[in-house]
Amino acid sequence: MNEDRADIVVIGSGPAGMAAACEARTLGLSVVVLDEQQAVGGQIYRSIDTAPADRVEILGADYAAGQALADGFRSSGADYRGGATVWNVTTDGVVDYIIGKQSKTISGRHVVLASGAMERPFPIAGWTLPGVMGAGAAQILLKSTGAVPKGPAVLVGCGPLLYLLAWQYLRAGVAISAVVDTTESAGYFRALPHLVPAILGWSDLLKGVKLLTALRRSGVAFYSRARDLAVLGETAVEGLSFVQRGTSKSLAAGLVLLHQGVVPNAQLSLSTGAKHRWNAAQLCWEPVTDQWGRLGASALYVAGDSRGIVGALASAAQGRLAALSAAAEQGVVSDLARRALPLQQQLARHTRIRPFLDALYRPSLQNRIPLKDDVLVCRCEEVTAGQIRGYVKLGCLGPNQTKSFGRSGMGPCQGRLCGLTVTEIIARERGVEPGEVGHYRIRPPVKPILLGDLVG
Ligand SMILES: Cc1cc2nc3c(=O)[nH]c(=O)nc-3n(C[C@H](O)[C@H](O)[C@H](O)COP(=O)(O)OP(=O)(O)OC[C@H]3O[C@@H](n4cnc5c(N)ncnc54)[C@H](O)[C@@H]3O)c2cc1C
Question: Among 113, 252, 352, 380, which is most buried by a count of CB atoms within 10 Å?
């Protein structure tokens, strides 16, 4: 195997990864950035370098703002390796990846894991039918190729990304037959104590209010407080049923886009065996790090949404802070505290609204834990919610044991998609907190790879 070295290896070229690389290059460190996507940008700025002007216009100002970071990254002198799928990372900074069907290894004196977020699963009846997609997945198509649905779409769920996609679709001329909003009344009460900090971070709040106002004024049917959702259809989606304020409703639909927030894509940090804790506000696992994002005494840092959902601007600040700390460790920076201060202030500013959003758009229990036993939870191995409940009755205590009971979490996605649901189902059945139940033990390869590529 080829082996090369860099002062800093960054995994992920979203805002956190690009910012970490720029900071490290400014300090004169050698930097290699690996991303499974060919182009830089991560989720929010996907295809920022190649999107034509009309698409940038549709996607809006927050998307366009990524160009400055991408330009800075390109001119930073960091070595970008696109199309590089990282499948293994060790605590001493060795990174294994596949690129162009070849297996490669690189060693970083420090490694920044900036693998971002993924959409939270939305396991309701019918969610696996053809014609049902994540709203984030639909947005990926729009950003990367400009592809939009031909027929009208029904958007279902809650959270900023759902409303953003609706707004972007309207600008792109896509027909939206309805937005079915699952935000709970209780969410407003939960969010109230966090309103003052959110108002202090007024620009983010204002952005959200403008987005929702535009959506409400567009004339698109908006059903709020929807619950008891089910996607209808036998072999493909035909509609959506739900209950709104005690009244049952049913909509015809050829395309249903589901979304209830994003969660850290923590497979890489989990695979190193590092300690992770249950974040009860965001209902997900996050790595336990120090203030710089460092994982214990290892050579690894975590920055951005893979460390806990913070949003793009805060992710970039975390990326820079991780690079600064690594540079201090490498003896390049002697005044870490002074350099870090403005970045820490940025981070605090950009995360002010987060507790408000987490409380308001907390996905409801019935959309996280399927009500019905026959709803699929592990899509790869076709394990249902009822089967997981059955395993608990037989004495299964946590997600890892479900693997022996019925292969849940053992398919190609390695439990990435079902992990949170399985943890929450078991916790509920056992009557304990998810943190006590634990998570799947993730082992390399964290991404499906071909044996031929590994030896290639
Ligand atoms: C589908 C989706 C769409 C989103 N769209 C928006 C939006 O429009 N606006 C907004 O404000 N927020 C959006 N978000 C939230 C958003 O992800 C961020 O807040 C921000 O992009 C986080 O930045 P990051 O650098 O932490 O990670 P990301 O931007 O997610 O970047 C992570 C990068 O790591 C790479 N990666 C992950 N695992 C591996 C691996 N094993 N090997 C190699 N590369 C890997 C990914 O390809 C990706 O490019 C979206 C989230 C999702 C899941």
Answer: 113
Burial 61-100 (b: 16+ CB within 10 A, else e): eebeebeebbeebeebebbbbeebbbbbbbeebbbbbbbe
The number of residues making up the chain comes to 456
Q: Is 98 helix (H, G, I), strand (E, B) or coil?
A: strand
CATH label, 369-437, candidates 3.40.50.300, 3.60.10.10, 1.10.10.1100, 3.90.1150.10: 1.10.10.1100
Confidence grade of residue 201 (pLDDT, cut at 50, 70, 90): confident
Q: Does 36 contact ligand 1 (Cβ within 6 A)?
A: yes
Q: Calculate how far, in angstroms, residue 306's C-alpha sits from the geometric centre of ligand 1.
A: 9
What's the rounded mean pLDDT across residues 161-180? 96
Does domain 121-260 fall under CATH 3.50.50.60? My reply is yes
- Domain extent listing, the chain: 3-118+263-334, 121-260, 369-437
CATH topology identical between 121-260 and 369-437: no
User: What confidence tens digit (pLDDT) does each residue in 215-260 have?
Assistant: 999 999 999 999 999 999 999 999 999 999 999 999 999 999 999 9
Q: Ligand 1 pocket test: which of 22, 33, 44 has the largest number of ligand atoms within 8 Å of its C-beta?
A: 44
Instruction: Express as a percent the part of the chain with pLDDT over 90.
Output: 94
Q: In whole angstroms, what is the distance from residue 155 CA to residue 140 CA?
A: 15
| Pocket lining: 16 vs ligand 1, CB cutoff 6 Å | yes
Orientation of helix 312-329 relative to helix 15-26, angle to 10° = 40
pTM score: 0.96
User: Is the CB of 270 inside a 6 Å radius of any atom of ligand 1?
Assistant: no
Give the domain 3-118+263-334 fold: FAD/NAD(P)-binding domain (3.50.50)
Is the C-beta atom of 9 inside 6 A of ligand 1? no
- Would you say the CB of residue 15 lies under 6 angstroms from ligand 1? yes
CA–CA distance, 395 with 370 (Å, rounded to integer): 20
